[in-house]
C-alpha cells in the first residue's frame, strides 16, 4: 500500500548531507507517528527514526547525532535530514505511517484504526553514498 509521497535522495559523497521529504498527514488520531525505514541490498528493512504526533523524535543508535527529523504541519510534510553520510548509509529509504493497533480513544472519543485504511508506505527514495 503506497500513499505517502517521497522526494529527495540521490548520489552523494561520504560526509555530504541529504534531505528526504515525505508528504504525510498526521491529522488523524489513528496515526501515532511517521517512521523512516531503510533497506540496503541483501539486508532486512530496518527502522532508523521517527516523529510522533506530539513532535517527539526518536532515532536508532547508528544514526543518532547525524540524522534529524522535523515536520511542517502546514504542508503535511515530514523531513529526514541526513548529515555526515557514509557508504554504509546507502539504501532505499521509506517513510511509513505508524498506526495505533486496532483503535485509539482521544478525548473520550473512540476511533477504529483498520489496517486496510492506515499504515501506508512511501514509494522509496534511493540514497547512494560513495567513498
Keywords for this entry:
131 residues, mainly beta, 6-stranded mixed β-sheet, 5-stranded mixed β-sheet, 56% strand, elongated
Describe the secondary-structure layout.
Layout: E1 2-7, E2 10-13, E3 18-23, E4 31-39, E5 46-52, E6 57-59, E7 67-72, E8 77-82, E9 91-99, E10 102-106, E11 109-113, E12 121-122, E13 125-130
Parallel strand pairs: 1-12, 2-13
Antiparallel strand pairs: 1-3, 3-8, 4-5, 4-9, 5-6, 7-8, 9-13, 10-11
Verbal overview:
There is one protein chain. The protein has strands spanning 2-7, 10-13, 18-23, 31-39, 46-52, 57-59, 67-72, 77-82, 91-99, 102-106, 109-113, 121-122, 125-130. The mean pLDDT is 94. The strands form three sheets. The chain has a six-stranded mixed beta sheet, with no helix packed on it. Strand 4 and strand 5 form a beta hairpin. The chain is elongated. The protein contains no helices and 13 strands. The termini are far apart. The chain is mainly beta and 131 residues long.
Secondary-structure element pattern, one letter each: EEEEEEEEEEEEE
Structural class: mainly beta
Radius of gyration over alpha carbons?
Answer: 15 Å
Number of E strands = 13
- Cα separation of the termini: 34 Å
User: How is the biggest beta sheet arranged?
Assistant: 6 strands, mixed
- What fraction strand? over 45%
Counting H and I runs of at least 4 residues, what is the number of helices?
A: 0
Amino acid at each position: 500500500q503506497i500513499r505517502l509521497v517521497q522526494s529527495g535522495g540521490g548520489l552523494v559523497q561520504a560526509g555530504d548531507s541529504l534531505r528526504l521529504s515525505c508528504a504525510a498527514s498526521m491529522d488523524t488520531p489513528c496515526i501515532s507517528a511517521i517512521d523512516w525505514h531503510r533497506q540496503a541490498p541483501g539486508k532486512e528493512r530496518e527502522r532508523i527514526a521517527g516523529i510522533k504526533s506530539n513532535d517527539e523524535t526518536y532515532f536508532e543508535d547508528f544514526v543518532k547525532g547525524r540524522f534529524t527529523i522535523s515536520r511542517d504541519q502546514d504542508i503535511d510534510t515530514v523531513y529526514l535530514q541526513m548529515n555526515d553520510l557514509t557508504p554504509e548509509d546507502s539504501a532505499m529509504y521509506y517513510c511509513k505511517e505508524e498506526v495505533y493497533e486496532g483503535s485509539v480513544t482521544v478525548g473520550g472519543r473512540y476511533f477504529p484504526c483498520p489496517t486496510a485504511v492506515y499504515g501506508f508506505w512511501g514509494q522509496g527514495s534511493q540514497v547512494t553514498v560513495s567513498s
